[in-house]
Design goal:
0% helix, 11 strands, mainly beta
Length: 126
């Protein structure tokens, strides 16, 4: 069993920054061999891919609307993945989830992700 726990969400103003973290535990072993991804879901909308990072951190993938503003990174020694979010906009408001998959980071379908965290709320006011 794998547990993913997100943290770092909150209420901020447009233009502010937030850093989300996700820590893995359980019988997952090391995060070393898995792609880690971030998704988000706004009220009344489908869950969207946000970003993903390969097992070695060498490859990343982003949704177009966050490119240049969000940065995904990971620390395998800490079994953690991070999402640095800068220049936040009201349309970034959503529950953010981390998840893991054996697929490469350019795979953006949430159906390919196996384990999910419970989510953390990010609210950006205008």
């Amino acid at each position: 069993q794998v547990q993913l726990v997100e943290a770092g969400g909150g209420l901020v103003q447009a233009g502010d920054s937030l850093r989300l973290s996700c820590t893995a535990s359980g019988t997952f072993g090391s995060m070393y061999r898995y792609t880690m991804g971030w998704f988000r879901q706004a009220p009344g909308k489908e869950r969207d891919f946000v970003a993903a990072i390969s097992w070695d951190g060498g490859r990343t993938s982003y949704m177009d609307s966050v490119k240049g503003r969000f940065t995904i990174s990971k620390n395998n020694a800490k079994n953690a993945v991070y999402l640095q979010m800068n220049s936040l906009k009201p349309e970034d408001t959503a529950v953010y989830y981390c998840a893991t998959t054996a697929a490469p980071p350019d795979v953006q379908s949430d159906s390919r992700y196996v384990y999910w965290g419970q989510g953390t709320q990010v609210t950006v006011s205008s």
